[in-house]
Specification:
This protein has 9 helices and 11 strands. The radius of gyration is 18 Å and the shape is globular. It has a 6-stranded mixed beta sheet with strand order 7-8-9-3-10-11, sandwiched between helices. The relative contact order is 0.17. It starts with a strand and ends with a helix. α4 crosses α5. It has about 250 residues and is of the alpha/beta class.
């Protein structure tokens, strides 16, 4: 079952065409890794897929339902705000810089959206939140504040917060780029554990060995286009395109 379909997506900022014509799909239980140099459009693609940036043209489909389609002039038309809000429940997003509310405790960061977005009772939200914090190895930190946590712990809280909404697809935008090298491993382990549970994920990452180990499918982007895509074996171990080979030689 296809949970996400992107068709002919284009996005510009002024005269700068950041995404030129990208199509992809993500099936249930699949882990898609997106790799490529800085400025290739990876993060913008994620922001478009999660409604943080408006696309110029193309189609965006979640679970068979259009969030965006083109009008007769080829311009992107979004569904109503009500429908977009409902479709927000299909996905969660983990940012590279955590984006936790500094004045909220750990547990309040996790339960806020289930209560205010999904209308869950505090009791139900607390049960979900505590289960997720325990899963992240942070059960004893529920009353702490983000400033008292390491970067790795903050990122685990942000993963718990995204999972609290029970999304069908979980997006990660460079989830380890703000972390010290010794903390990177703990976040990669959490994501690997989620993959083992068949969580559907789209991960923008610069960790090549991680992408090879955890992804079912890898896309290499450069200059706003998909240069090459395939299995980890094909892309990481046996790339065909010269641009892909040049990029991977750095790792």
């Amino acid at each position: 079952m296809k949970l996400l379909e992107i068709k002919n997506l284009k996005k510009s900022f002024g005269d700068l065409e950041v995404i030129k014509d990208i199509s992809l799909e993500v099936k249930q239980g699949e882990v898609l890794a997106i790799i490529g140099p800085s400025g290739s459009g990876k993060s913008t693609l994620l922001r478009c897929a999660t409604f943080l940036e408006k696309i110029d043209s193309g189609e965006l489909i979640y679970v068979g339902e259009h969030a965006v389609k083109n009008d007769e002039n080829g311009n992107a038309v979004y569904v109503s705000n009500k429908d977009l809000k409902r479709m927000h429940n299909h996905f969660g997003l983990v940012f590279q810089n955590f984006n936790l509310f500094p004045h909220y405790s750990v547990i309040k960061n996790v339960i806020d959206a289930p209560m205010h977005v999904q209308g869950k009772s505090k009791e139900e939200a607390m049960k979900i939140g505590r289960e997720l914090l325990a899963k992240m190895g942070l059960a004893e930190k529920e009353d702490s504040y983000p400033c008292h946590l390491s970067g790795g712990q903050q990122q685990r809280v942000s993963i718990a917060r995204a999972l609290a909404l029970n999304p069908k697809v979980l997006f990660f935008d460079e989830p380890t780029s703000a972390l010290d090298p010794e903390l990177t491993g703990e976040i990669l382990k959490v994501i690997k554990d989620l993959a083992a549970e068949h969580m559907t994920m789209v991960i923008v990452t610069h960790e090549m060995s991680f992408a090879r180990d955890v992804a079912n499918h890898i896309i290499f982007m450069d200059g706003g286009v998909i240069v090459e895509q395939g299995s980890p074996e094909e892309i990481i171990n046996n790339p065909k395109n010269e641009r892909t080979k040049l990029f991977l030689n750095r790792f």
